[in-house]
Design goal:
alpha/beta; 7-stranded mixed sheet; elongated; Methionyl-tRNA Fmet Formyltransferase, Chain A, domain 2; 5-stranded antiparallel sheet; 2 domains; 23% strand; Rossmann fold
């Protein structure tokens, strides 16, 4: 059986490696080498990984797979089963039809696959402080995450999880589901159940959506930062002179008798000797423990106020962008609530 993987996301390497140990993968289809950009979050050049793991590497130039040269190259491959692990684009019908057994995808959300079709489900789950995430393996068709379900598993999300640890949990269950359902024959026999229940969609996020609203409570900002940290572009504040991208932070509660109410949210209250930043939020403080400035030589000062965006306005723009592009795909009510 010729198994190929379609991936360009570093976060999926562990799952691919786990599957390869149990069911040898013939090759990996990934994007050709290019500069790392925020336009493809988590982009990873897969050739070195393939060389290390003795996998054939098939490079394509177009993320949408609409390039005729890419199409010709892929149609020359003998593909029985294609595993789509970390490819945030729809799979064209010509490639689906080319695979003898089928194309397997992975998707889920805090509301399950039907209730959270679309983009950035794990980011949204952390932003909304969800406690569970339901992930499914399914047969991909030309629709958006609407194929028949092979298997579903659930993992827990704690206040300590980041998007990276969420992906670690996802990868463990993804590998388990694919391996177990290859072993028991469900994939080969195409044993799957049609999705049921009301469907709704999650909107795409772009790097510009990571601007922070310091006028929000500490917990909201903490959730926002951990949802957008590496391998994503990160949460940030931006002025005309510089940008600060925040990778890691934690709530920093002070004595309740100590009154910071007169301090404007976003104010850098303290810069510690190790350059950690203590920043005022709506209701308390946030300790920023890992960050970068652009340009690098920017000197931050105590008393400096980091600019805020309006979160509700930001969400309204995300929603409007989705509705303009996908007018017939109803958004999750959980998303629309965030704009209110």
């Amino acid at each position: 059986m010729n198994i190929y993987v379609l991936s360009t996301n570093e976060a999926r390497l562990d799952a691919i490696a786990q599957i390869n140990k149990e069911f040898p993968i013939k090759g990996l289809i990934g994007l050709s080498k290019r500069e790392v950009t925020d336009k493809i979050s988590g982009y990873f050049y897969m050739k070195p990984f393939c060389q290390k793991n003795n996998l054939e590497f098939v490079a394509v130039d177009d993320y949408s797979l609409k390039n005729e040269k890419d199409k010709t190259r892929l149609l020359k491959l003998k593909v029985d089963l294609l595993l789509v692990l970390g490819w945030q684009r729809l799979i064209p019908d010509w490639l689906i039809n080319h695979c003898q057994i089928g194309v397997i995808g992975i998707h889920g959300s805090a509301e399950g696959i039907a209730g959270g079709r679309g983009r950035s489900p794990q980011n949204w789950a952390l932003i909304m402080d969800k406690k569970e995430f339901h992930i499914s393996t399914f047969f991909i068709n030309t629709g958006i995450d609407e194929g028949a379900i092979i298997d579903t598993k659930t993992f827990l999300l704690s206040e300590f999880d980041t998007i990276k640890t969420s992906y670690y949990k996802d990868n463990l269950l993804t590998a388990q589901m694919i391996i177990s359902n290859l072993r028991n024959g469900r994939i080969l026999k195409k044993q799957a159940k049609a999705q049921s229940g009301k469907t709704s969609y999650l909107p795409q996020r772009i790097p510009e959506d990571g601007a922070i609203d310091w006028k929000k409570p500490t917990k909201n900002i903490y959730n926002f930062i951990r949802a957008l940290t590496k391998p994503y572009p990160g949460a940030f504040s931006k002025t005309n002179r510089f940008k600060i991208v925040i990778w890691q932070a934690q709530p920093f509660a002070m004595d309740k008798k100590q009154d910071y109410k007169t301090i404007k949210p976003g104010t850098i209250i303290k810069i510690f000797p190790n350059n950690w930043l203590l920043v005022k939020t709506l209701d308390d403080n946030l300790l920023i423990t890992d960050y970068k400035t652009e340009p690098k030589n920017i000197v931050l000062k105590e008393g400096q106020v980091l600019p805020s965006v309006n979160f509700e306005k930001q969400m309204a723009e995300i929603i409007a962008r989705h509705r303009k592009k996908y007018p017939n795909l109803p958004l999750s009510k959980e998303i629309t609530k965030l704009a209110q």
